[in-house]
Amino acid sequence: MTTPLLSETLHDCRDAFATTLIELAEADPRVVAVVNDSLGSSNLGGFSERFPERTFNVGIAEQTMVGVGAGLAGSGRIPFVSAAASFLTGRATEQIKVDAAYGRNNVKLCGQSPGMAYGELGPTHHSVEDISWLRAIPEIGIVIPADDVETAATVRWAYEHQGPVYIRIPRMRVPSLFDSDYRFTPGRGRIARDGSDATVITNGVVLHHALDAAAQLAMEGFSLRVVSMPQVKPLDERLVLRCAEDTGRIVTAEEGQVSGGLGAAIASLLAQCLPTPMRILGVPDVFAPTGSEEWLLNHFGLTATGITAAVRQFQ
Question: According to CATH, where is 3.40.50.970 located in the chain?
């Protein structure tokens, strides 16, 4: 297990995504990008300039975009289909289900600016339902990286993986949490900070807030274990059960709807195998309001303050 290293410098995960994709494309002519008039929001302008013949911009037509990606995969290409997460998953759910997942096509779906990253654009642009929707579709892996290092590692893994995957690419600038030699291991979570009194399981931009919460609680004598769970599907069930057995209390924190997301997956597992007291933090079956992503995370208790408060409910 690797312990993340917290850095003061903030990084853009979209830069890591774009840089890694260019590196892969330079080494392998099969790598292509498919976008929906989203070169700018996907940070793929540099990719398009470097590989214009391997950039397919279908315009604002998300269903077509996923279908084109599936067709390219069927012809031996490795398509990275990139668009705002809310529109990629909301408008093209049928194509993701049928063309990517049911067809088991080698399509890499990259949801840009997921969760509440579009902030001031409000509920139409928030992508808090995407994990719930896609967890219900067989054959597709779901990954939520937490920083620039994990984003790059996830893109490299997706390139090597045979089959459809969905990757959330954070928009919010976040601190680097992992060493540069970090490698993404599919289906595995990691203990980011060990503890014995309770466990918080999280991913994405919430991970660094969970680490801050653990540091605050440590000053009060409370030992909080922090688990990074980048892959929601398949879930690292063995690690979840181990944490439940070790600490007896579980908090989950996710930038998305609590119905059908990370917390729901863990609650279902524990209910069947090891009933454990839980708190599930996220968006509680409401439309997230308009506001900055930082304000929204705080509003839904997904910062160090909210996570600390949820843990204290056990005491």
Answer: 11-175
What is the model's pLDDT at position 5? Answer: 45
Q: Positive or negative, the Cα torsion across 179, 185, 186, 188?
A: negative
For domain 11-175, the question of CATH label 3.40.50.970 is answered with: yes
Right CATH number for 190-312 from 2.160.20.60, 3.40.50.720, 3.40.50.2300, 3.40.50.920? 3.40.50.920
pLDDT digits (tens, 9 = 90+) for 279-296: 999 999 999 999 999 999
Give the model's pLDDT for residue 4: 45
Q: Which residues of the chain have pLDDT under 70?
A: 1-8
Q: How many residues does the chain have?
A: 315
3-state helix, strand, coil in the chain (%, to 5): 40, 20, 40
Q: What type of residue is 149?
A: V
What integer pLDDT is reported at residue 314 of this predicted model? 87
Q: What is the 3-state secondary structure (H, E, C) of the chain?
A: CCCCCCCCCEECHHHHHHHHHHHHHHHCCCEEEEECCCCCCCCCHHHHHHCHHHEEECCCCHHHHHHHHHHHHHCCCEEEEEEEHHHHHHHCHHHHHHHHHHCCCCCEEEEECCECCCHHHCCCCCECCHHHHHHCCCCCEEECCCCHHHHHHHHHHHHHCCCCEEEEECCCCEECCCCCCCCCCCCCCEEEECCCCEEEEECHHHHHHHHHHHHHHHCCCCCEEEEECCEEECCCHHHHHHHHHHHCCEEEEEEEECCCCHHHHHHHHHHHHCCCCEEEEEECCCCCCCCCHHHHHHHCCCCHHHHHHHHHCCC
What is the rounded distance in angstroms from the CA atom of residue 227 to the CA atom of residue 246?
13
Helix 304-312 with 207-218: angle, nearest 10 deg? 60
* The predicted structure's pLDDT at residue 165: 98
Count other C-beta atoms under 10 Å from residue 295's C-beta.
15
